[in-house]
């Protein structure tokens, strides 16, 4: 294999290991337990491209890291540049890298499907607006709504809205509890918005709107904390424009009842506490009233769990639709479909890295990019036979004279 191929395998190994949240030592221990001893130093050489693993080693690494063997030899289709990472201070750097690597694998498959199936269809994401003040963030949120031709009414689904306008939305349950959201760009073209699947539906809506704000605003020259505050303002304004909040509350209020906040949450999918904060930041209520409302939230035990839930659908569906379309059109195999979107086909994902046998005719009918997988799997399966059966290897290669016998 060429040097570039060796480097690619190393890069993919490191990506898979990071996504699995394992250190080199931990991978070595697991391989040892499975009867395939490999030192940390050897693994490091594979990842840095200084050494090339044998097919049997790649197969064991695939099983250990929870990927298919052909993942290591498949050219990446997307490079993700992360723009913002919203998390608690307790989230370690290694866990941050795990989240980014695991999401990058999902995004890579999504981009490949988009470019394969919809190469001529592209949504234009507006250029980020220069933002420095809360009022600028409000304007940026209003501009995004107008760009996407949204009314000022409640958004039925924030997730569907961003997906319908060309964003890649990922709602992941495979993230730490202290992770909130993540945003970036895939290949400099596809906006990527990530939310944890753990919070309530209204929180997930807010997370996607918040990450959208990071991509819609240009906060150059501001601190990270200042940018976070402006992204919060963008999210609230995107979910409930200022004109809507004033229409619901009125221009000025001395007090707001909890019953009002409950109804507004159920109508707009914005939490009761965010509604109270929204009223304060727009000058509808003063600071003492705002503080009094939050004292009530605390007294009632509603800071962590509010008494009513927003009922809506905030699950990304774009990837599943793309996978099912590609499968129906014969662009991908069922096993590849399950790799791209586990559970999409209703079948349990096969993690034994096996592939159904294909005839030569069936193999030739596959798209070129899909032929490597069964060929590699066949080579991996056949390798032990060639290593252990001398009759398969104790022959001389054909020479030119053999053609004339």
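-> sequence recovered:
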């Amino acid at each position: 294999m060429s040097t570039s191929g060796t480097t690619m395998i190393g890069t993919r190994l490191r990506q898979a290991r990071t996504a699995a949240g394992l250190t080199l030592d931990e991978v070595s221990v697991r391989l040892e337990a499975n009867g395939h001893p490999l030192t940390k130093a050897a693994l490091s050489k594979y990842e840095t491209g200084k050494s090339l693993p044998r097919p049997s080693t790649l197969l064991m690494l695939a099983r250990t890291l929870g990927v298919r063997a052909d993942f290591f030899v498949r050219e990446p289709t997307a490079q993700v540049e992360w723009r913002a990472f919203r998390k608690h201070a307790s989230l370690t750097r290694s866990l941050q890298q795990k989240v980014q690597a695991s999401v990058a694998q999902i995004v890579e498959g999504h981009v490949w499907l988009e470019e394969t199936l919809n190469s001529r269809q592209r949504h234009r994401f507006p250029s980020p607006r220069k933002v420095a003040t809360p009022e600028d963030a409000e304007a940026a949120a209003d501009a995004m709504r107008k760009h996407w031709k949204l009314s000022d009414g409640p958004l039925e689904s924030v997730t569907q809205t961003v997906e319908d306008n060309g964003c890649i939305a990922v709602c992941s349950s495979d993230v730490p509890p202290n992770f909130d959201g993540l945003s970036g760009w895939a290949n400099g073209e596809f906006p990527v918005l990530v939310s944890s699947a753990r919070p309530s539906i209204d929180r997930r809506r807010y997370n996607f709107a918040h990450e959208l704000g990071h991509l819609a605003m240009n906060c150059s020259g501001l601190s990270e904390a200042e940018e976070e505050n402006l992204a919060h303002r963008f999210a609230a304004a995107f979910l409930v424009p200022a004109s809507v909040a004033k229409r619901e509350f009125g221009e000025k209020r001395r007090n707001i009842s909890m019953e009002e906040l409950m109804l507004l949450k159920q109508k707009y999918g914005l939490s009761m506490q965010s509604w109270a904060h929204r009223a304060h930041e727009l000058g509808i209520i003063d600071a003492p009233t705002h503080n009094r409302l939050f004292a009530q939230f605390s007294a009632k035990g509603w800071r962590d769990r509010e008494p009513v839930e927003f009922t809506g659908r905030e699950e990304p569906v774009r990837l599943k639709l793309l996978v099912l379309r590609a499968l129906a059109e014969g662009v991908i195999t069922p096993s590849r479909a399950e790799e791209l979107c586990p559970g999409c086909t209703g079948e349990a994902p096969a993690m034994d890295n096996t592939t159904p046998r294909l005839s030569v005719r069936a193999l030739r009918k596959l798209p070129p990019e899909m032929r490597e997988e069964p060929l590699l799997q066949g080579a991996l399966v056949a390798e032990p036979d060639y290593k252990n059966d001398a009759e398969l290897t104790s022959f001389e290669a054909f020479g030119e004279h053999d053609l004339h016998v």
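Residues 342 and 348 are 8 Å apart (CA to CA).
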